[in-house]
Amino acid sequence: MIGRLNHLAIAVPDLEAAADQYRNALGAKVGEQQEEPDHGVTVVFIELPNTKIELLYPLGVNSPITSFLEKNPAGGMHHVCYEVDDIIQARDHLVETGARVLGNGEPKIGAHGKPVLFLHPKDFNGCLVELEQV
């Protein structure tokens, strides 16, 4: 059901410093900052030959990244995103197998302009999983 790894997401306490580190120290191609108000984050994508790294920074006081950074002040791995062909079919299958979909269970549009869902980390070995329809 899942396809390729779309991206790994890292919550960071300083978005510009993190982007500069990938750009200057690692020589990576760094995208522009994007605000994603529906998800409460500002993101920067680091483009790699085989996947992407998504740097996450809180957008607004109710951002889920704020509480993550309170627990992990230096930042850290936030989630892994896998591609799926049909997000509704994937959701329905996962719910049938006992997985919990976060939020109201309906896909939202993600940073790539495509439907996304998040799956509860307790159902996936402590890892928050994002599914993105491609």
Radius of gyration: 15 Å
Our count of domains comes out at 1
Per the principal axes of the C-alpha atoms, what is the gross shape? globular
Through-space gap between termini: 12 Å
Strand content: 35-45%
The CATH architecture term is Roll
Report helical residue fraction.
10-25%
What fold name goes in the CATH topology slot?
A: 2,3-Dihydroxybiphenyl 1,2-Dioxygenase, domain 1
Keywords:
alpha+beta, 2,3-Dihydroxybiphenyl 1,2-Dioxygenase, domain 1, globular
Describe this structure as you would to a colleague.
This protein starts with a strand and ends with a strand. Strands 1, 2, 3, 4, 5, 6, 7, 8 and 9 form a nine-stranded mixed β-sheet that branches. The longest helix is centred in the N-terminal third of the chain and has 11 residues. The mean pLDDT is 97. With 134 residues, the protein is α+β, with helices and mostly antiparallel strands. It is 22% helix and 36% strand. It has a single domain, classed as 2,3-Dihydroxybiphenyl 1,2-Dioxygenase, domain 1. It has three helices and nine strands, in the order E-H-E-E-E-E-H-E-H-E-E-E. The radius of gyration is 15 Å and the shape is globular.
